[in-house]
Prior knowledge:
The chain is an alpha/beta fold.
Amino acid sequence: MKVLVTGAGGMLGRDVVTVARGMSHDVVALSHDDLDVTDPSRVERTILREKPGAVINCAAWTAVDEAESNEQEASQVNAEGAGFVADAAAKAGAKVVYVSTDYVFDGTKSSPYTESDETNPVNAYGRTKLGGERATALVTKQSFIVRTAWLFGPQHENFVETMLRLGEGGGPVVVVHDQIGCPTYTGHLATGLLRLIDSSAFGIHHMAAEGACSRYEWAMEIFRQSGVVTRVLASTTEMMDDRAKRPENTALASGREAPIRLPPWQRGVADYLARRAQPPAEEHPRKRGSISRRQPVLDLRPKPEDVEEAAGQEAVPSEQEAEPEHEDRDEPGAHG
Ligand SMILES: NC(=O)c1ccc[n+]([C@@H]2O[C@H](COP(=O)([O-])OP(=O)(O)OC[C@H]3O[C@@H](n4cnc5c(N)ncnc54)[C@H](OP(=O)(O)O)[C@@H]3O)[C@@H](O)[C@H]2O)c1
């Protein structure tokens, strides 16, 4: 199938392109420079010219905190731009995937959110993404709205890279323990998205790694698997200086009869670390981007009073626990 990818230079976009090419799809990879999704006439011209069978829209404003003071600009990309892409895809007779987020939920549910749960975003980013879901669904019935969460992937700064840098820098590393979600490896999600476009299961899908954890548990797993020994201090969201409010529990599950399941999040960490250790040629040199704009801004340098407060939750992986796992590391690739 001919697959057109917008936002192809982004963290997920890159992996969608890589996986699609690996599956022998005919891929049109369009980065922000190639196609600005906020320009409706260019979007339409490009998609009608390429005549793809499916469009995977990975273009987004992902700076969660910055969206608070720039909601209109974020909305132009995440909501209006999404509508332009979906509209052009419909005119071209193509299916369209809109990648959305767990942040459309308020995080107050005590069990994982399914597709039928009510949305109620608590920050500007979540509102703009919900706008994108609606704009997409409004213009075409041949759309997949895929909500995912806590992405980490190659060649972009992300939570795993931040943890490793801070851990290798001597720590201590301070991580919130009161945000629960599903850390999802982009390589796994990309595979899921490409399976989805082969189907006609249009509508909303929750597609995130199996299982859920706190950011603190995620950090501990990263250090355990990578063998980095550092002090990890549990903190609370309140102690962070984030501008945007973060929902507390946004674990995702699917209530669909035959959902596309992704591997467990721990497997995502393992596959990511393996790829990072053995980068394929095309992923050199590692791009040092700015810190992932989607993850909470963690000022991980503890204030003295915070460390004291969190001292009861300090954890140091033992040498034995810190042994990296070597099983199932068959995914090629690298990251930076
Ligand atoms: N990262 C996460 O944890 C996470 C979690 C849940 C859902 N998601 C969703 O997953 C999708 C992919 O996210 P990601 O993490 O891969 O984000 P990303 O790395 O920030 O990639 C987004 C890409 O979109 C491009 N872009 C921005 N404005 C654009 C425009 N007007 N026209 C065309 N391209 C534009 C960006 O280019 P520039 O950088 O050059 O502007 C960037 O390459 C997004 O829809 C996001 O909302 C992400």
